[in-house]
Amino acid sequence: MQIVFAGTPEFARVALSALIGSTHQIVAVLTQPDRPSGRGRGLTQSPVKEEALRHGLTVLQPESLRRPRPGAEQAISQLEQLKPDLMVVAAYGLILPLEVLRIARHGCLNIHASLLPRWRGAAPIQRAIAAGDTETGVALMQMEEGLDTGPVWSTYSCPIGPRDNFQTVHDRLARIGADGLVRLLADFPPLQIKPVPQPSEGVVYAHKITKTDLLIDWSKTSREVADQIRAFDPQPGAVGVLQEARIKCFDAQAHDMGLKNEAPGQIIQADENGFLVACGQGAVSIGAAQRPGGRPLAFREFLNGWPVRAGQRFDQLKE
User: Fold this and answer.
1) How far apart are CA 267 and CA 279, in angstroms?
2) d(Cα 158, Cα 173) in Å, to the nearest integer?
3) Which of the residues 3, 47, 104, 219 could staple to 13 if both were Cys, CB 3.0 to 4.6 A apart?
4) pLDDT tens for residues 145-184?
5) Using CA atoms, how far apart are residues 27 and 29, in angstroms rounded to an integer?
6) 68, 49, 47: which is closest to 60 by C-alpha?
7) Domains of the chain, CATH where assigned
8) Tell me: the pLDDT tens digits for 172-222?
């Protein structure tokens, strides 16, 4: 088939790479415009754009696909002229209006990183981990106007382990989604199956991550605190305040243990292996941390030049 691919981050790049290695022809790649990043704020290409250019594919980068916004008219016209058989979407980040969803002969297929209808929306991986889910997966969904409401062609599940973080789950789902996509498109649309409408029960929304979501509430149970830290590890990092500095915490593990008189946020132990911090119930060990303006460090390096000792306490952070 002739396919238009739409995606932006690494999750989408894995799917694009798999499509490039398949028998289908990618006639164009949609990705978000280059964005400023880093200390120099120079423009950075998305992982999808880098992959597309590496293989000599046509790249379109409209700011929006909604008329009459700038660039939308030209991009939609280009897509219509291509007459694609299918559009494949993975974490594109821009809303596709109905007229775009209808351009391809077989419509738009979306690779969504959850077991729909649970965790519809922008941040399904982070929300699943933060909620303490022990299972997640990928849904290959036929897109419609609603937010991740379309019927599902196939799903693939995988566990979330107690030591998993955003990166490990992301990488696992990216590979599962890419492989599942290639299998589904081997003979598309399949004659034996049709997409199954999502049930009305079990709908949960994965809203965009806010700064408040990153603030560690030490009064919660050790499991809840560890899940929160793992959900934002390695990026953007869950935050606590220690000695008036905003510290990002990584490599968290919950410990069911009885506390003596330690208050939530109090450091029970601090050495080269990390912090052990009291929670409302139990404690959390933190294996790496990041000071403002620095990079994530193992505690042997983190403690150099910054003495931290048992008995000190993380403040309850308020935004």
Assistant:
1) 10
2) 8
3) 47
4) 999 999 999 999 999 999 999 999 999 999 999 999 999 9
5) 7
6) 49
7) 2-206 (3.40.50.170), 212-302 (3.10.25.10)
8) 999 999 999 999 999 898 888 899 999 999 999 999 999 999 999 999 999
